[in-house]
Amino acid sequence: MTPKQQSYEALAQTIIKKMEKRRFEACYCPTKEEAFEKVTSYFTKGCSITCGGSVTLSEIGIKDFLVSDAAKDYTYINRDLAKTSEEKRQVFSQAVLADYYLMSSNAITMDGELVNIDGMGNRVAALCFGPSNVIIVAGMNKIAGDEKAARDRVRSLASSPNAIRLNLNTPCAFTGVCGECLGDDCICSQIVTTRYSKVPGRIKVILVGEELGY
After folding, report:
1. What is the pTM of this model?
2. Which has fewest Cβ within 10 Å: 28, 59, 111, 112?
3. CA 158/CA 103 separation, integer angstroms
4. What span, in angstroms and rounded, lies between the C-alpha atoms of 214 and 119?
5. How is 26-58 classified by DSSP, letter by letter?
6. pLDDT tens for residues 45-96?
7. pLDDT tens digits for 119-152?
8. Among 158, 149, 159, which residue's Cα sits nearest to residue 179?
9. Could you report the per-residue pLDDT of 154-163, keeping only the tens digit for each?
10. What is the SS3 assignment for 144?
């Protein structure tokens, strides 16, 4: 184990203790392969699963798994199949009643809070209320000092590549810097800090000792 890997694990264990006080169920996986195994270990036969938009979930292989024959025992509510605005609204509505909602977090504070900035708001809505379980997978690169640092991290490191990935017409997609825009394609419409789980263990956080997502 390298010094960086040792540092990641030590930091993760420190944050996990703080998350547990917030009634999050949290754990640490050194690799994305172990994170994949941890995520799938939660699923039960016949359960319904859906995802928020997440590069991290793609990188650990969960999205490919959910559309494969290996996931035939589960009902996957696939947002990628929705093409029109009405179809997307229907899929987002179904997500509210899903057994498992999978996502990453834009940032996580040293004190164990989750900070997310969203465009449509469907992802943070599911995090706040609805699905029976929310599973969050986040690389250790998502850790920030405090809430302000977490917001700054999202706007300086995550918003621009996400806007480019989604082909959005925002200032950050062209300059790499948040322009505090108010346009139709704004990717920073909702800013939500989750500091506590009203339902114990509903929010499950898997910290991964790799750099994942933006």
Report:
1. 0.94
2. 111
3. 15
4. 15
5. EEEESSHHHHHHHHHHH--TT-EEEE-S-HHHH
6. 999 999 988 999 999 999 999 999 999 999 999 988 888 989 989 988 899 9
7. 989 999 999 999 999 999 999 999 999 999 999 9
8. 159
9. 988 999 999 9
10. strand
